[in-house]
From TrEMBL:
<feature type="compositionally biased region" description="Low complexity">
    <location>
        <begin position="461"/>
        <end position="490"/>
    </location>
</feature>
<feature type="domain" description="Protein kinase">
    <location>
        <begin position="8"/>
        <end position="276"/>
    </location>
</feature>
<keyword id="KW-0547">Nucleotide-binding</keyword>
<keyword id="KW-0067">ATP-binding</keyword>
<feature type="compositionally biased region" description="Pro residues">
    <location>
        <begin position="408"/>
        <end position="433"/>
    </location>
</feature>
<dbReference type="GO" id="GO:0004674">
    <property type="term" value="F:protein serine/threonine kinase activity"/>
</dbReference>
<dbReference type="InterPro" id="IPR050660">
    <property type="entry name" value="NEK_Ser/Thr_kinase"/>
</dbReference>
<dbReference type="Pfam" id="PF00069">
    <property type="entry name" value="Pkinase"/>
</dbReference>
<dbReference type="InterPro" id="IPR000719">
    <property type="entry name" value="Prot_kinase_dom"/>
</dbReference>
<keyword id="KW-0418">Kinase</keyword>
<dbReference type="InterPro" id="IPR011009">
    <property type="entry name" value="Kinase-like_dom_sf"/>
</dbReference>
<dbReference type="InterPro" id="IPR008271">
    <property type="entry name" value="Ser/Thr_kinase_AS"/>
</dbReference>
<protein>
    <recommendedName>
        <fullName>non-specific serine/threonine protein kinase</fullName>
        <ecNumber>2.7.11.1</ecNumber>
    </recommendedName>
</protein>
<feature type="compositionally biased region" description="Pro residues">
    <location>
        <begin position="491"/>
        <end position="502"/>
    </location>
</feature>
<keyword id="KW-0723">Serine/threonine-protein kinase</keyword>
<keyword id="KW-0808">Transferase</keyword>
<feature type="region of interest" description="Disordered">
    <location>
        <begin position="343"/>
        <end position="519"/>
    </location>
</feature>
Length: 586
């Protein structure tokens, strides 16, 4: 068991993502005042240890510290709470509440798609979480099933949104240093794919993709390559699956609008989804059915969507540090926990009111320009575990850092991936098994929600935050559906046969280095010469045996005899030349 700081002990890995490994861990002692949740000795927590390469990137470390206050104050019943941030030498770690349950990606793969009612209620809670974070000015930007954990306590499933802040770390200028496009193509909003300014509407687009995947088992835009998928996000309209109730499709279609301003706010999305869930169940009343059919009127766009801060201009490490200190919030101070075996905690940032230490003293070594970029190894790891994260080659001619080698240059306004290096690894939907809390029934969306999905108690009021550009209101819970009346056919056609599953890719063998790393100059040339001589020899033999050359030369000898004769003639000639050269001297 490995200690993390003085307060936590890693016990076993829970999973590995592109940015790090999540561990089940135990609290050794109560965390200090710098943690949002002090915790108790013996309590279990989840700790995401960011990859070492990330921890060695000065930009990312500073961003991590700056995001601290945002992450720690983000609390909502459907958001995995960040309890503490640990910065210790080359280690960056997020301490979170431990969620007992799988993530949605795994869940869909193992259990098949959800019924429309269950999917709507589940996504409504995710929309609640988004509404709360958007009201606080925080955009998730990486919404996908793998980032939704299912808390299965008490026989209910509560979706918990996680990985807030990780996408924000990815804004680091350090990540624009290589010619790579990094992202998850299946869930990326058109404006993100194009490099246009992003707002909280990107999360609504992600919620639309997620909802589509929940009910069909696969995202709406797939393709052979990441580039194809991105292109589809930009140019193709999603197609309504025949089994999808019309009101649910209305919601999905509005979320997937190419124009961000036409997508509903998270709050309206949550409300609309609850109305839909009430109106498409087998017990829905005529009024509920009517309300569900009119859901479009509820999906008003967000008049003031939360903007995603533009990626800061790539700046020298020193300038980045200075910038970080400019933005430093003394109340959001992070302490460096003592190194393993060390005695005293060292403060990274200045304590409130005290003069700050030189920021460069806390900077980890800046990555050498020719060293492997952190994302290269992360993307390799993601590919090895057959994840959806993609790496895309970016044409050097489109790399703004090449055109503007100064790191003060702003980030590229458009980073279009040019040449796909490998096909994306999309998980095809599994065979449409029934949602596991359901009895064996045909896959009809009219199942009463209480049989398929146990909605959690109404979410508590979102905690008042320090800055609240928007007011987030408590979502209304829908009335229980009572009567099955819905325009969709009662007997639905059987679901389309599941698309062929790709065989899981075997992890690649690590590249082996040559057993003899010593390079011999000229060895390649020598080999070439020997091969050439061999070729001449074989060609000569063929000509000698297969053509009348043997008779023309008149010897009648075989090839080997003739070669022996030529060699001895040559030897005699060389000897005679040598003797005549030696003669005058002797
Ligand atoms: N708070 C938590 N409690 C319990 N398990 C968790 C928690 N956070 C993550 N996990 C588990 O750890 C695994 C890895 O999580 P991680 O966030 O690194 O994966 P990911 O979302 O696939 O990666 P990434 O977003 O970096 O591409 C997940 O599959 C999830 O099941």
């Amino acid at each position: 068991m490995r200690p993390v700081g003085s307060k936590y002990l890693l016990e076993e890995p829970l999973g590995r993502g592109a940015t790090g490994t999540v561990w089940r861990a135990r609290q050794r002692e109560t965390a200090g005042a710098e943690a949002a949740v002090a915790g108790q000795p013996g309590e279990t927590v989840a700790i995401k240890v960011l990859k070492e390469e990330l921890a060695q990137d000065a930009d990312i470390v500073m961003r991590f510290l700056r995001e601290r206050s945002v992450l720690l104050r983000l609390t909502h019943p459907n958001i995995v709470r960040t309890r503490d941030l640990v910065v210790e030498g080359d280690l960056l770690a997020l301490v979170m509440d431990l969620i007992d349950g799988p993530d949605l990606h795994k869940y869909i793969r193992q259990n098949g798609p959800f019924t429309p009612v269950a999917a709507a209620l589940l996504t409504a809670q995710i929309a609640d979480a988004l509404a709360a974070s958007h009201a606080d000015g925080v955009v998730h930007r990486d919404l996908k099933p793998a980032n939704v954990l299912l808390d299965e306590r008490g026989g209910q499933m509560k979706p918990m949104l996680t990985d807030f802040g990780i996408a924000r770390l990815a804004d680091s200028p350090g990540l624009t240093r290589t010619h790579e496009f990094v992202g998850t193509p299946s869930y990326v909003a058109p404006e993100s794919a194009e490099g246009r300014p992003q707002t909280s509407a990107v999360d609504i687009y992600g919620a639309g993709i997620l909802l589509y995947e929940l009910v069909t088992g696969r995202p709406p835009f797939a393709g052979g390559t990441a580039l194809e998928v991105l292109h589809r996000h930009l140019s193709e309209e999603p197609q309504r699956p025949s089994t999808l109730p019309e009101p649910l499709w209305t919601v999905i279609e509005r979320c997937l609008r190419k124009e961000p301003n036409e997508r509903p706010s998270a709050e309206n999305l949550a409300r609309g989804l609850r109305v839909v869930a009430s109106g498409v169940g087998v017990h829905s009343s005529p009024e509920q059915v009517e309300a569900a059919l009119g859901v479009g009127a509820l999906l008003a766009p967000d008049p003031s969507p939360a903007p995603v801060p533009q990626t800061p201009g790539a700046a020298p490490a020193g300038a980045a540090a200075a910038g970080a200190m400019d933005a430093y919030d003394p109340n959001a101070m992070t302490s460096v926990l003592p190194p393993v075996g060390g005695a005293d905690a060292t403060t990274v940032l200045p304590s409130t009111g005290a003069p700050g230490p030189d920021p460069t003293s806390v900077m980890p070594p800046v990555r050498q320009p020719d060293a492997a970029h952190p994302w290269q190894s992360q993307m390799r790891a993601a590919r090895d575990r057959n994840e959806q994260t993609q790496m895309q080659y970016l044409d050097p001619s489109e790399d703004p850092l090449r055109r503007r080698p100064q790191r003060q240059a702003p980030p590229p306004p458009q980073q279009r991936p040019q040449q796909p290096q490998q096909p994306p690894q999309y998980r095809q939907g599994p065979p449409p098994q029934q949602y596991r809390q359901q009895p064996q029934q045909p896959p009809q969306y009219q199942q009463p929600p209480q049989q398929q999905y146990a909605p959690p108690p109404p979410p508590q009021h979102y905690q008042q935050q320090q800055r609240q550009p928007q007011q987030y209101q408590q979502p209304q819970q829908p009335q229980q559906p009572q009567q099955p009346q819905y325009r969709q056919p009662q007997q639905q056609p059987p679901q389309a046969p599941p698309p062929q599953q790709r065989p899981p890719r075997e992890p690649r063998e690590p590249r082996r280095r040559s057993a003899n790393p010593v390079r011999i100059p000229g060895l390649g040339c020598l080999k070439g010469c020997l091969v050439l001589i061999l070729l001449f020899f074989v060609a000569g033999w063929l000509v000698w045996e297969l053509t009348p050359l043997q008779e023309w030369v008149g010897t009648g000898k075989g090839w080997w005899d003739q070669v022996g004769t030529w060699v001895s003639d040559a030897y005699d000639w060389v000897s005679s030349v040598g003797n005549s050269a030696d003669g005058p001297q002797s």
